[in-house]
């Protein structure tokens, strides 16, 4: 095998965001762009420019446009960089949580996941890549910063000349001396799910006439959901809709929220309430997000985390209880209330799953969640969409109440953290930066100030010191807290590829069950006004409405 050294000019825009490097497909297709970033990963993770003896990597993606081509490029580069073996999901497919599962199960050196998650795909859509370490989780900032630094100085990458590897049959072959194993992308993951949840109880629930609709949004979870929900749990064929992964997600936006999962929302909110399935669920492009719906009822991701935590011991894999809970800073404090009652710690981390890894590795937390439709546990080191759906099924199978009833009883016990997120997408970057600077500029005079009924208790620019390795992350979002526990958070997205996305997170606490049925937007109207006033949102952005309200 001859290693070919190919000259490249370094790029200066390969800084990984909240969850890896995401750019337009055309950018990734441009000469040397993907290669440069992959070589930067290898140079960072391998000492002395060569993989350690026997090094095995996992490789797969969400099946979006350019997935297959990228896999062939990365395989040739892995061979040239001395990797001994690569486990590749059949067809190039591995959901993000399944990749994490495989990295851990086979104790590999790490893995490369190809996904831009919920961002649209296709030739004009987005592509993405990230490296996960041997714990199965996204590389921590120390590594992503080093990869970025390396990407800016690289002048060549290594590859071999070899034909493409067949990705569609399970089996193994060699490429330039490196072993390539094409594995079933679903089997290991499905087995892990069976070990955590009471499949017998869920089968009995489904057998009793309970109806479920799962929208895979033409993204990666189709094959996983069909195998687990329809084949192993006996849900009727057709339970999984949009179950065939397509390179452009059927032209849709594979983001499981009330705006983009329109077909599922229409089914769950149909005119005849009783005709709707008992549970509706959806997952995103790479299978790590989830949305949970009851009949005419939406469970916020923050509530979902809290409800799963409060009911965790109903699932066999969590029968021994929780070590602790972690949530991202913008996620509501609903989980904190459950942790308080259970007497376990609750950690508040910056946005992005990479911040949960150390806490889970150290055994400090069992459950983690984000307001952005991310829920997961220490069974892997990624958030996990189908896992959350199965957890809900397990809870429903044991409690035999409706989704809505479970949420209302939860609020009656813990109070309700009324919550919403307003996104302003595709703003000019300087305008978005101006909004943030405007809010931060007000901090000096805010503490103690009154806005109608609300009095500001504190405001800060959130920073986090990792309790395990002491690393510091700054600039993670602007928080304004009020005396009654209400909160407004301003944050810029780190996953978009067009301009900037401003996220405004709003939260109020309502202890009174008589007011738990209120509409969230109405209940939060006062805070929304304060947010607009503080940020001069309309004047600065010209926008009168958010792009997406969750
Ligand atoms: C968003 C979410 C964040 C999530 C990240 C990756 O990031 O807010 O909670 O971890 O996406 O999710 P941002 O920086 O755009 O707010 V995924 O499903 O794209 O891996
Ligand atoms: Co995702």
Give a structural overview:
The protein has 550 residues and is of the alpha/beta class. The protein folds into 3 domains: 3-185, Alpha-D-Glucose-1,6-Bisphosphate, Chain A, domain 3 (3-Layer(aba) Sandwich), CATH 3.40.120.10; 189-414, Alpha-D-Glucose-1,6-Bisphosphate, subunit A, domain 3 (Alpha-D-Glucose-1,6-Bisphosphate, Chain A, domain 3, 3-Layer(aba) Sandwich); 416-549, Alpha-D-phosphohexomutase, C-terminal domain (TATA-Binding Protein). The protein has 18 helices and 27 strands. The protein has a 7-stranded mixed β-sheet, with helices on both faces. Strands 20-21-24-25-26-19-27 form a 7-stranded antiparallel β-sheet. The protein has a 5-stranded mixed β-sheet with strand order 11-10-12-13-14, sandwiched between helices. Helix 7 crosses helix 13 (385-399). The longest helix is centred in the C-terminal third of the chain and has 18 residues, at 429-446. The protein is globular and about 70 Å long. The termini are far apart. Bound molecules: alpha-D-glucose-1-phosphate-6-vanadate (VG1) and cobalt (II) ion. The site of alpha-D-glucose-1-phosphate-6-vanadate has 18 residues, from loops.
């Amino acid at each position: 095998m001859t290693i070919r050294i190919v000259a490249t000019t370094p790029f200066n825009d390969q800084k990984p965001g909240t969850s890896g490097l995401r750019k337009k497909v055309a950018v990734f297709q441009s000469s040397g762009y993907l290669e440069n970033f992959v070589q930067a990963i290898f140079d960072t993770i391998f000492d002395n420019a060569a993989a350690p003896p026997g090094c095995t990597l996992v490789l797969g993606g969400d099946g979006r446009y350019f997935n297959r081509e990228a896999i062939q490029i990365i395989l040739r580069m892995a061979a040239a960089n001395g990797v001994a073996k690569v486990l590749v999901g059949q067809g190039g497919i591995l959901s993000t949580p399944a990749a994490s599962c495989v990295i851990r199960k086979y104790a590999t050196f790490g893995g490369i996941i190809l996904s831009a998650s919920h961002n649209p795909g296709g030739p004009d859509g987005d592509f993405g890549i990230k490296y996960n370490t041997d714990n199965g989780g996204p590389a921590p900032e120390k590594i992503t910063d080093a990869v970025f630094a390396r990407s800016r100085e690289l002048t060549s990458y290594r590859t071999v000349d070899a034909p493409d590897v067949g990705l569609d049959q399970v089996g193994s072959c060699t490429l330039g001396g490196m072993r390539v194993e094409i594995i079933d992308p679903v089997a290991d993951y499905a087995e892990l799910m069976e070990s955590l949840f009471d499949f017998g109880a869920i089968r009995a629930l489904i057998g009793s006439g309970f109806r479920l609709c799962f929208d895979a949004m033409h993204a990666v979870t189709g094959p996983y959901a069909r195998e687990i929900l329809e084949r192993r749990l006996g849900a009727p064929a057709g339970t999984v809709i949009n179950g065939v992964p397509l390179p452009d997600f059927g032209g849709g936006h594979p983001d499981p929220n009330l705006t983009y999962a329109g077909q599922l929302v229409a089914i769950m909110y149909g005119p005849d309430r009783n005709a709707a399935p008992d549970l509706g669920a959806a997952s995103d492009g790479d299978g790590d997000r989830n949305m949970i719906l009851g009949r005419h009822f939406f469970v916020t991701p923050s509530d979902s985390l809290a409800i799963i935590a409060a009911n965790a011991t109903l699932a066999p894999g969590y029968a021994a209880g929780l070590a602790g809970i972690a949530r991202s800073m913008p996620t509501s404090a609903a989980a904190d209330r459950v942790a308080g009652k259970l007497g376990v710690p609750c950690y508040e981390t910056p946005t992005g799953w990479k911040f949960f890894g150390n806490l889970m590795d150290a055994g400090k937390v069992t459950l983690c969640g984000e307001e952005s439709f991310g829920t997961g546990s220490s069974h892997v080191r990624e958030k996990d969409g189908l896992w959350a759906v199965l957890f809900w099924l397990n809870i429903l199978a044991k409690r035999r109440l409706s989704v809505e009833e479970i949420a209302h009883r939860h609020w009656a016990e813990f109070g309700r953290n009324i919550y919403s997120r307003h996104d302003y997408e595709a703003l000019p970057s300087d305008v978005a930066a101006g909004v943030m600077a405007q809010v931060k500029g007000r901090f000096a005079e805010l503490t103690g100030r009154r806005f109608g009924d609300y009095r500001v208790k504190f405001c800060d620019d959130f920073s986090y010191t990792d309790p395990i390795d002491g690393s510091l992350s700054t600039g993670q979002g602007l928080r304004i807290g009020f005396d009654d526990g209400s909160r407004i958070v301003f944050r810029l997205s780190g996953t978009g590829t067009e301009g900037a996305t401003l996220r405004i997170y709003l939260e109020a606490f309502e202890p009174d069950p008589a007011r738990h049925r209120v509409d969230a937007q109405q209940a939060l109207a006062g805070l929304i006004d304060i947010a607009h006033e503080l940020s001069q949102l309309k004047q600065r952005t010209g926008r009168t409405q958010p792009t997406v309200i969750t």
